[in-house]
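[Meeting: bench + compute handoff]

Bench side (C.D.) handed over the final construct sequence. Compute side (W.E.) agreed to return the predicted structure before the next meeting so the bench team could plan truncations. Sequence as handed over:
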Amino acid sequence: MSLTTSTSDTNKYRSKLEERVASDLNKRGVKFRYEDERIEYKVIRNYKPDFQLPNGIYVEAKGYFKSEDQRKMRNLKAQHPDKDFRMLFQNAKGKVQGSKMTNIEWCKKYDYQWCEALVPEEWTE
């Protein structure tokens, strides 16, 4: 992919500062791409599961499923495929933050078992 001169008319910048930088680069004829690439990085954090059942199932209880928690749960599953993480929602039909998806749809998309309100008996066996 080649670099192209970009203008604020064709791009929406996230801040006035970014818009000023783009404008300056354009004035000087410097070619650039704006937010054109994704570079993966890992953040090392510690996770404290809400509940761990005797059979090894981890249950994360959510009243409101924030974007940062969605990211955390996706990372946990990817980095610990040997562990059984499951979701318990106060309202499974509620929307996840930053999306039109419901909690149920999010769980289906990311292959999480889920329940609503209380831990099902079959999870405790």
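W.E. noted at the follow-up: The radius of gyration is 21 Å. C.D. will use this when planning the next construct.
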